[in-house]
Amino acid sequence: MINGPPLLAISLLDFLWIVVGLLVLFTALAVVVLSLVWLERKALGRLQRRLGPTRTGPMGLMQPVADAVKLLLKEDIIPASSDKVIFWTAPLIVVISAFMIWVTIPASRGAVVKNLDLGLFYIIAFAVVGILGLVLAGWGSANKYGTLGGLRAAAQLISYEIPVIMVVITVAMLAQSLDLRKIVAAQSSYPYLLVQPLGLVIFFTAGLAEVGRTPFDIYFAESEIVGGPFVEYSGAHWAVFFLAEYINTFAIAALTALLFLGGWSGPWLPDVVWFLLKVYAVILVIFWVRGTFPRLRIDQLTAFAWKVLVPLSFYGIVITAIYQFYHWPAWTLTVMSAAGLAAVGYLIYRHMVGPAQRAAQVRARQHLLQTQRQALRTARQGLADVK
């Protein structure tokens, strides 16, 4: 008979370690959210030739803390006609789904709460749950603008979830694994950015739409539907949605770094430092996009998903399958990916500048007609003077 510690004791010990890990993870994410709020306000201030927060703390570092305290102390108003259970449950669904995907996202080889062999599958499955929270938030508010915002959120997130899943499949095909640590290890020779630039662009663009960042912040468009599914929320309830948005933004940046930028790989510096440097670099690009592009219309948003990103994501899977089946060198996948990206970029450019070019052609024709008419009038006047 083999002697050993009781199974119950081992299970309790493992449970305690998981609880401690979750608490540490939540604390770290809360600090990250505060840093993102400060960084976004500073970055947008510089882009718009402003200083950003400067008064509260050195360089405005305490401004996010002041904002958090203000939100927590504000009166939490619940509409009398709302469904109280749904109204209270919706923010919890959104923030829990945003938090749970971080259970298996590693910041280094050992810095992960629970590594899973099917980590990417787990992340995609939990990310979809957040859609339910947004729909319930609009429905439970008993507000027509909130309901419209919830339906918009469902339409947008379901549309852009497809390209994200297709790109994840492409990366899994290259790495032959859904384990994020193995995917990073497979990029030891070169990051997947070099062989799948198309996949990076699709994942980054669809990720912006998934977290509702500009120019895809259509489901709570203030100019159209006041505040979308959050219109009746205030105080701590609204702060929970705000927290979930920034956690998801950090998650998209982290997955971009893990799937395409080599994760924590890098010389000299510790793994966690390399990971954070790459993640914050991606986040700065996200803030740059917010300060540059205007919001899309709802028809433009859905058309871009179904007419551009979805076909491109399937094209990415096809070229990756061809590359792996025939064992071609890596540069062939780079060429096929870049060619698809360049072709679609050219078509989008032609589509965007087409109306302006047609308007310029119409103005040129009108100017030419006016010039001809003026010349004809001048000629007639000259003949009349001669007579």
Strand and helix layout:
Elements: H1 7-47, H2 63-73, H3 84-100, H4 119-140, H5 144-175, H6 180-186, H7 197-210, H8 222-225, H9 235-260, H10 271-290, H11 298-325, H12 330-386
How would you characterize this protein structure?
- This protein has helices at residues 7-47, 63-73, 84-100, 119-140, 144-175, 180-186, 197-210, 222-225, 235-260, 271-290, 298-325, 330-386.
- The chain has 387 residues and is mainly alpha-helical.
- Helix 5 (144-175) runs antiparallel to helix 7 and helix 5 (144-175) packs parallel to helix 11.
- Residues 4-9 have low confidence and may be disordered.
- The N and C termini lie far apart (130 Å).
- It contains 12 helices and no strands.
Mean residue pLDDT: 84
Order of helices and strands: HHHHHHHHHHHH
Describe the global form.
globular
Q: Roughly what fraction of the amino acids lie in strands?
A: under 5%
**Quaternary state of the chains:** single chain
Annotation, overall tally of beta strands? 0
Low-confidence stretches: 4-9
Tell me briefly what this model is.
By secondary structure, the chain is mainly α. The chain has helices spanning 7-47, 63-73, 84-100, 119-140, 144-175, 180-186, 197-210, 222-225, 235-260, 271-290, 298-325, 330-386. Mean pLDDT is 84; it is low at 4-9.
